[in-house]
Amino acid sequence: MGGYLSPDPAVEKWVRMRESTAKHFHWNGRNIRTVGILGLVIPAGIYYLAEKYDAKCKWAAIGPSPKAAPVEEDA
């Protein structure tokens, strides 16, 4: 039933490279761009949008509103 599968040299090379990524990693323009976009630009954009939205809302004004007007007593 079970047959023998011959290993593909390209797959074996890929597996060896994945197991030792640190040895083969080099900073280049593509890596720097990816880290810059995913690590700096996107979080900075989210922060900017959050600050912009937060400035629009008056969070201190949000709260339970009184159900009835306070009663003033004559002294």
Helix fraction bin = 55-70%
Count of alpha and pi helical runs: 3
Q: Tell me the distance between the termini.
A: 101 Å
> In what range is the share of β-strand residues?
under 5%
Main β sheet profile: none
Mean pLDDT rating? 83
Low-confidence stretches: none
Following the backbone from N to C, one meets helices and strands in this order, namely: HHH
Indicate the radius of gyration in whole angstroms. 31 Å
Shape: elongated
Class of secondary structure makeup: mainly alpha
How many E strands?
A: 0
Question: Which key features would you list for this structure?
Answer:
75 residues, mainly alpha, elongated, transmembrane helix, membrane, Complex I-B15
Report on this model:
This is Complex I-B15. The chain crosses the membrane at residues 32-50. Helix content is 57%, strand content 0%. With 75 residues, it is mainly alpha-helical. The model has no long low-confidence stretch (mean pLDDT 83). It has a domain at 13-57. The protein has helices at residues 9-19, 21-24, 29-56. The protein is built from 3 helices and no strands.
